[in-house]
Design goal:
Layout: E1 3-5, H1 12-15, E2 19-21, E3 24-25, E4 32-36, H2 42-49, E5 53-59, H3 62-71, E6 76-79, H4 87-93, E7 103-106, H5 124-127, H6 132-140, E8 144-149, H7 157-168, E9 172-179, E10 190-197, H8 208-212, H9 223-233, H10 248-256, H11 273-280, H12 325-331, H13 344-353, H14 357-373
Parallel strand pairs: 4-5, 4-7, 5-6, 7-8
Antiparallel strand pairs: 1-2, 2-3, 8-10, 9-10
Family: Belongs to the class I-like SAM-binding methyltransferase superfamily. C5-methyltransferase family.
Protein name: DNA (cytosine-5-)-methyltransferase
Enzyme class: transferase
Length: 377
């Protein structure tokens, strides 16, 4: 198989001898990573693009595991509830010594911390999965830890408990509230990112671009530009090139939404009673429902219902339909060659739950720079 030199900026000590093959990093000098709560593998793909050898992963959802294995066949995947996985045994089976792993990445379930949860009662057991990061950190003592979640986590008591326990293990932290658009992702997606380095003396900059050692950020990518690129890259007979089937009245409602419009632009006969009731109470509720993606702006956040018009601004910019699964995946910056397994609803959920690939790549580079600067190479 042909090889090519990795074409992104990495710290000099990581560049030495590093070669990239399309399906795997092939030298022993590559930094290693373990991906917790791996989903369908969006973060794994981004970390691989940044130069990591993702040697292990943990995921519970069976369809997401099938998708993960399809795209990352050489990564050891534990398909299990993370609470039943022995972190010490996992490290041993991966052939890693304590303190040898470069990066432990984790993206625990975030729905309980999201503003989209509204007034629903939080699932305390799912929210407590955040603490599994500490258990795996103790077993591996990686050089770096990367946590990605919704900004609401920072307001939860578990966030303070997590960072305090990791600090006791010797990690220094920087935390960032970032929008994926700054990394060239054509989607508005606010996230909390925590970067920890195993050094009490590490001085982690509050500016992510200072860590990345780059003079400028990628250009803002709009949904229109992304869809135009996708049209040139579309695979023949791509199974993801399909949108959600709509019943007659929903199809008529979608057709009635003007370009750049929202549900507020619908004629009275197409307005939903539930929306009228919400509007009568004042405030702003369900404002994105039945909205069109704007061509001149980044797409909205891809959620677990990211191709369902009733659940957000997920109507195609000009065509009378919802987004296709491939369009949603492309807004998440998955390569067009990335495949997913499962029912339509399962694939939609896998896409919405993913870390945008380009975002994960840049964060991976930030990790490498931080580890190098801390002298942990």
């Amino acid at each position: 198989m042909q090889t090519r030199t990795l074409d992104i900026s990495l710290p000099p000590l990581w560049q030495a001898g590093l070669r990239w093959r399309y399906d795997h990093v092939v030298t022993a000098t590559a930094p290693t990573a373990v991906d917790l709560f791996a989903g369908a593998g969006g973060a794994t793909q981004g970390l691989r693009d940044a130069g990591f050898d993702v040697v292990g992963a943990v995921e519970f959802d069976s369809d997401a595991c099938h998708s993960y294995r399809l795209n990352h066949p050489r990564t050891r995947l534990w398909q299990s509830d993370i609470r039943s996985v022995s972190a010490v045994r996992m490290r041993s089976e991966l052939g890693l010594r304590v303190r040898e792993l470069t990066l432990l990445k984790a993206c625990p379930p975030c729905q309980g911390f999201s503003t989209l949860a509204g007034g629903r009662a939080m699932d305390e057991q799912r929210n407590d999965l955040v603490h599994q990061v500490v258990r795996f950190a103790r077993a591996f003592m990686p050089k770096a830890i990367l946590l990605e979640n919704v900004p609401g986590l920072a307001r939860n008591r578990r966030f303070g408990e997590l960072t305090e326990q990791l600090s006791e293990l010797g990690y220094s932290f920087g935390s960032y509230k970032l929008n994926a658009t700054i990394f060239g992702v054509p989607q508005r997606r606010n996230r909390l990112v925590v970067l920890g380095v195993r050094s009490r003396r590490a001085n982690i900059s509050p500016d992510i671009w200072e860590i990345l050692d780059r003079h400028h950020a990628p250009a803002l990518a709009t949904a229109g530009e992304a869809l135009q690129r996708l049209s040139r890259l579309t695979r023949k007979n791509d199974p993801l090139n399909r949108h959600r089937s709509l019943n007659k009245i929903t199809a008529e409602r979608v057709k009635a939404v003007p370009v750049g419009g929202t549900r507020f632009d619908l004629p009275p006969k197409y307005r939903l009673r539930c929306h009228d009731e919400l509007d009568s109470k004042g405030g702003h509720r369900a404002t994105a429902s039945y909205g069109r993606v704007r061509l001149d702006l980044p797409a909205p956040t891809m959620t677990t219902r990211c191709t369902t018009p009733a659940c957000g601004s997920f109507i195609h910019p000009v065509e009378h339909r919802g987004l296709t699964l491939r369009e949603a995946a492309y807004f998440q910056t998955f390569p067009v060659t990335y495949d997913f397994v499962g029912t339509y609803e399962s694939i939609e959920r896998q896409i919405g739950n993913a870390v945008p690939v380009e975002m994960a790549k840049y964060l991976g580079i930030a990790v490498l720079n931080s580890v190098s600067k801390a002298g942990l190479v």
